[in-house]
Write a structure and sequence with these properties.
- InterPro entries: ACAS_N, AMP-bd_C, AMP-bd_C_sf, AMP-binding_CS, AMP-dep_synth/lig_dom, ANL_N_sf, Propion_PrpE.
- The chain has two domains: 7-312 and 389-483, Rossmann fold; 507-632, ANL, C-terminal domain (GMP Synthetase, Chain A, domain 3, 2-Layer Sandwich), CATH 3.30.300.30.
- It is 31% helix and 25% strand.
- The protein is built from 20 helices and 32 strands.
- Helix 1 (7-16) crosses helix 2 (18-25), helix 7 (148-158) packs across helix 8 (179-188) and helix 13 (338-345) packs across helix 15.
- The radius of gyration is 24 Å and the shape is globular.
- It binds adenosine monophosphate.
- Residues 244, 290, 366-369, 388-393, 416, 482, 484, 496, 499, 505, 510 line the site of adenosine monophosphate.
Length: 633
Amino acid sequence: MPASQNYEAFFRRSIDDRDAFWAEQAQGVDWHQPYDRVCNYDRPPFARWFEGGLTNLCHNAVDRHLKGRAEQNALIFVSTETNTEKAYSFKELQQEVQRFAAIYQSLGVKKGDRVLIYMPMIAEACFAMLAAVRLGAVHTVVFGGFASHALASRIDDATPTVIVSADAGMRGGKVVPYKHLLDEAIELAGHKPASVVMVNRGLADLAPVAGRDVDYAALREQFLDAQVPCEWVDSTHPSYILYTSGTTGKPKGVQRDTGGYCVALAASMKHIYQGEPGETFFSTSDIGWVVGHSYIIYGPLINGMATIMYEGLPTRPDAGIWWSLVEKYKVSVMFSAPTAARVLKKQDPAYLTQYDLSSLKALFLAGEPLDEPTATWMADAIKKPIIDNYWQTETGWPIMAICNGVEPAPTKFGSPGKAVYGFDVRLIDETTGEEITEPNRKGVIAAEGPLPPGCLQTIWGDDARYVKTYWSSIHGRTMYSTFDWGVKDADGYFFILGRTDDVINVAGHRLGTREIEESISSHPNVAEVAVVGMADQLKGQVAVAFVVLKDASRAADPASAREQEQAIMKTVDEQLGAVARPAMVRFVGTLPKTRSGKLLRRAIQAVCEGRDPGDLTTMDDPAALQQIRDQLA
Ligand code: AMP
């Protein structure tokens, strides 16, 4: 393939000559048995990519690199919390993964079984993920910041055979114990895992449950020389489930395949991120999020790159820490979130430039809107291209980006770029369902099926919900909805204008307001609640809760209102985790609703942000919005 080609032609071919295009991309991965069909779209919207092919994600990420890269760094684990730094070569990574796979086997894990991983950012989490897909088991990583109720609902949905966890994580020098949250979650869940593998970091009390908990280190000793071959699985075999928030309280298990995901990631490394085999990739995300799956673990490793797994803050011991790692490990591609850049923006830029950043080609930012001041500050500070890209847990890799690996193109401030090859993106008028073709008119960002390889196959265990949620919201058409608003300019660059649903984005973390509302409603003093996202300088958005108490006198004076607020925040902390805690809880006598009883979240949000709440003719009691205003004053 020529180094530079016309992007428009490349994109068109991905849509108009889909199978030939993706067959070419599929050459970037190893197939144990070739596929019969590039894309089976006989049953829309279910796409089956590379049907008939046999492959394995762990083989592509690890084993195939032993030829030629056995001694090269594969995984570099850095914790500024425990002052640990350890690099694993591809050979060592393969050995650790085989040991973990042998542990799974000894606990009865078979192909298709689920393994739930609830862990901090430590190397063992990476081994646990790769070992699962090595056996054809399906991993589901639950973000370590979630608490027992959030974890319990995921245990019940995924019904794992085994759970892997650790005694604790650490953040900002403080130990964050996991074990009691896990025990509570298993207690709450209807499904009980057969075994729990515990990694003991020596940070917190473990109190093993007899007959269920097993010690990772002791088992690892038994399997030091384990040889566990990769299980060849169908390309369409699920590799993992990753839960994400939606408009209901019940999280959705995004199910990913094996072959399509592998091909999509391999291609993205070449066309979007431009990392070369042998170089080092540094993504500052967490394995609990989609970026962590695609660009801490699988993407870089599939591409034969070393990947850095970092536990700690971007500012500790000082704001130079990430950049010192860039120098030390000659990082060529870095991936972070706008929130992290905004945190760094508060620091002296000298911290960033005291290190040799000459290896770094670009810094990619994704997960939330990138504001112009932050992008400019960052570009000035590190003197490298800052490249925004837009995607979702559902898609697994970018829907919009600048594909510099195909044809170098300028970035535009505030835009994550153009539609990425494979995504037949359309802007749709919300009321008529018609496609918007003129530039700069706002619409819902949607895509014609099939979605390209790497995107969600379905919602785990719920095909009907998959179709209803994602493919039925655009007037009379079977189209994928991103639930984001956007506009496209005359050059084909998109600008993202926020969600069309009740999902909010706090510091790049996606949260469902319904989930937070359900948690707050469980507090015995609460009669009703509305949670909305409010614009925030640092975190992009924060959650704000407006609560109607069963007994209003409980919040009659500022001191008792503060007490109620703290009690409600504690409930959210305990059930969902501090990540979902509202920034403030305010008490009102009634909530703004339509006459049919529907909460007017968008009007509340507008008031919170000092905007016009729009048409209120359907509103039941206009005084309710005034109460919100009064509470914010
Ligand atoms: P998640 O599934 O957690 O990755 O969140 C996906 C959502 O985050 C998208 O639907 C957008 O609302 C938002 N998002 C992700 N990337 C960007 C970006 N580059 N610019 C604006 N919003 C983004």
